[in-house]
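Section 5.1 Outputs to date
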Amino acid sequence: MSEPETLVFLVVIGARFVVPLLIPRFPLPAIVAALVLDGVDQSIFQLFGYDPPGYQSYDKAMDMFYLSIAYLAAMRNWTSRPAFDVLRFLFFYRLVGVVLFELTDWRPLLLIFPNTFEYFFIAYEIVRLRWNPVRVSRRTWVVTAAAIWIFVKLPQEWWIHVAQLDVTDTLRAMPWLVPVLVLLGAGLAAAGWFWLRPRLPARAWDWHVAADPLPEEIDTAAERDRWVTAQGRVWSAATAEKVVLLGLLCIIYGELVPGRRTTDLELFLGVAAFVVVNAAISMAVARRSGNVESLLAAFVARVVLNVAMVAAAGWLLARFGGGFDPAAAVFYVLLLTLILTLDDRFRPVSQVRFGADAARAEISAPSPDRPSGH
């Protein structure tokens, strides 16, 4: 690559890593920005006369990074348990599909495992702008996901990944499509304004663009430490989920690392050990009320700790004739530490919020020993 091409590549890649970090605080605008950046990145490269080799794999890896941040942001922000359950399924379904694609390079897998997660997240956040998502039924959320899956993502995934068609080239070859698309867009806008808008429920609040405040019972580091000490476990479903998330994510990124010395299974097991050790450290810190309020400070402290831990592991491996690539190790440490730090911050919020909702539902439910009415 020439120097300008390298600069453009690094700027685009950097933006695709930085923009998603805004999703926890500004969910809708940040994920839309990430989506737009995902859509125009290759056009930017072409504008500078550059076509990065193997960019499809980079693209999928960065997609899963920002989708992972969005999933963790939903832990922090979402108040509807049914919607979150649907989102969790969509996230891990897509994650498995991308891993299989990276391992096999069989493009139809991206059609079989479509990225419905992304648009479902956007749909929820659009609802949250003016309405309370808690009032939306589980059935409605499932139907919403199914509609996005069938009518939006399947055609889109087929177009992009199976047919491998380009919008610009298609419009250039068939210019009559432009007025058709304009009329279609105008028709949808008119239907939304004249048919859908009058049928919308009454607004619950003014515009909600930024994320809502955390629940009062867990909005400080001390409260989070107390909750983790009382409820957290190293060997738990939460730790298992983190192992799966980070293990599969690192397999995706592992396909991009040149000269990797480990198999996918070895990488997954190494990540699993890393996650379990970090879970134990998090529990120990929480028991001593040692967490800090600043997310950045917590991330930096954990990076230092994890780099030291990985360096020690590298020293031990070297004594027995093993080892790993230092640059790749640093990248993995940063990626894993970021996801783990966000998970440790946001997962307790989700569990407290949904646990409180379940408790309220149980209290309000009529007792089987007495009639519910008079």
